[in-house]
Amino acid sequence: MAGLELLYASQAPGLSRPQDSLLCFVHWQLVTHQYRALGTGDQPGPNERKSELLPAGWNADKDLYTLRYKSMDDRHELLLKAIMVDTSMILNVMDCSSKQVADLTLTVADYIDPEHLDDFHRVYKNVEELQTRVVTGIISPLGAPKEKGDPRKEPKPEKMVPPASTQDYDPLRIPPWQPLGGRQPSWPDPRDPFAVGGEDLDPFGGRRGGMIADPLRSGFRRPLIDPSSGLPNRLPPGAVPPGARFDPFGPGGGRPAGPDPDHLPPPGYDDMFM
Description:
- About 20% of the residues lie in helices and about 15% in strands.
- By secondary structure, the chain is an alpha+beta fold.
- The protein has a domain at about 5-140: Protein Transport Mog1p, Chain A.
- Strands 1-2-3-4-5 form a five-stranded antiparallel β-sheet.
- It is rod-shaped and about 130 Å long.
């Protein structure tokens, strides 16, 4: 409690009531949090200056204390009123600029020993609790000003964080599958909840993947069928239209692996000449 003993000693001749000692402690807390006293009363007086000491006549009324304070950075001006009600002191503090108000009620006997008003080392009780209640009750709610020129209380510059890459590296992540040839088949997303059952409605895969397994649609390039296989000469260009159902005249090395187109005729068509 550095500074409180000197403050108490300077006011000791006039500290005749327990509530005077309690308000002296409250004043010291305000001074510790970068406030300085201006004077007494609701209105400013002539030739007022900031001071760490209590102004003259601050305890002239035993039931009502009215003090004004100003922060060191001149951003806050407080009006403090302390009213005695029975054995309790009701503290009301208003920030004159923002009109914010904070209140605190203290039982004098919990923190002041009336038998030792002339002894600083024995007059205060439960000092840590009293200090916590004053700070959290009437100082912090109004925003305590910062001390000028104290580098420890100045905000430190934030460290520059390099921007994250578009895709963070994860050694356990499985990369997406890409088919051979670089062309992605037009298959529906299996995670789409509305894709369930779509293959039953479109078995041949006109719009979707279909329900018939076709190894030729696995992403690999499909070898072309040579319509001239088995003939002594090659057919002229255009003899077989593109996409036509055509069986080569004979076996050849150009026939693709997999099911023959005639193995799976359309359902309901049992024409052997088809």
